Amino acid sequence: DDYFHREAIQEVNWIPADLSGNPDAYIIATVSGDGKVLLWDARDNDLSYPSRGFMLLGSKKKCLGGRSLSFSPLDPWLFVVGCETGTVMRAFRPPPGASVGKPQGNYTWKSSAVQLLDQLAANSRLTLQHHVEGFCRTAGIKEVTAEVVFQSKPEQAVIFPAPKTTDLEPHAGPVVVATFSPFHRKLLLTGSVDGAVKLYDVLQQKALLTLFPPSKHLSTCAVSAASWSSARPCVFAVAMEMGGVYIYDLLQSKQEPVMQLPLAATGSQKATSLTFNPRQRGLLACGDDGGRVRVFRLPFKLSEQQKSEMAEISGLMGDRGGKEGKPSLEKTRSMDATK
Predict the structure, then answer these.
(1) Per-residue pLDDT tens over the stretch 276-319
(2) Where found, per UniProt (predicted)?
(3) What is the CATH number of the domain that holds 296?
(4) Which residues of 98-118 are buried (b: 16+ CB within 10 A; e: fewer)?
């Protein structure tokens, strides 16, 4: 079905439902190689249909397959998609428009269907409403639910509009990981099968840093996973598809890893996934191609935040006065929305 993912889902995120409502309310965001980002709200349905969606369109209006997805933890309207083409796409999730209430007329619009209308711009709302009511008239349906909206087969461009996007400096291959820093809402880490790891200020198109973790040969240099430390703003881990997990500390070096985890002694060196423990500092879990999970405890120096750390991040980002540049981010969102 055109309104669901038609290829493998590459990434799943939990994101806040909105900024003004229940702080404990979350929805699910997914991205796939079919070029769609879909949002799913388990509060209103059993995930049998998406509550919102976006099409990923390139410069020539061609659909771009997604490989990775990350929402800023400090600004959940901001998200980045890493694509199969190597494109790194910055986008803003438009906040829902003001509710227009239930359409008046011969059809009863249920709340689930009204919510789909509320997600759209005014002209798209009318287009969708007229299309759905025309379908109901032909089918003899009096109540409009979200299921009926999808059964009416509206154009994808109407129900899943393309967000306003900006392309950042690309990779030369599929972007398999994109992840925002938990400490700075503009700092982004990406990794690709081209063997490169890039750090971005998402307001700037050019990458701040490009790193190449050690590899024996170009054919074995693909990045398979990466993760920010939950304790140290300058620390992150990178896994290579054909072997090796490396720890970087930007306080010590902007190019070279400061530590390699000892995977060889335990068999496979092919780490396929990484994640830091969000509570216990310095614990890093690694999954490998043999189905095993190993947990490493990093040394104190790599797991205890340093006094100069946020200043180092601010310097790297070019922030003035140690601030995160909130007005600049809001200005960029406004500019993107008016493109």
Answers:
(1) 998 888 899 998 888 888 999 999 999 998 888 999 999 998 87
(2) Cytoplasm
(3) 2.130.10.10
(4) eeeeebeeebebeebbbbbbb
State yes or no: pLDDT of 217 exceeds 50.
yes
- Give the tokens for residue 11: 């990434």
Q: What is the pLDDT of residues 241-269, one digit of tens each?
A: 877 899 999 999 999 999 998 876 555 56
CA distances from 78 to 74, 148, 245, 283 (A): 9, 31, 29, 28
Nearest to 264 by CA among 291, 242, 282, 285: 242
Give the Cα separation of 192 and 2 in Å (integer): 28
Tell me whether strands 143-144 and 26-32 are parallel, antiparallel or unpaired: unpaired
The DSSP line for 107-148 is SEE-HHHHHHHHTS-HHHHHHHHHHHHHHHHHHT--EE-HHH
- pTM for this predicted structure: 0.85
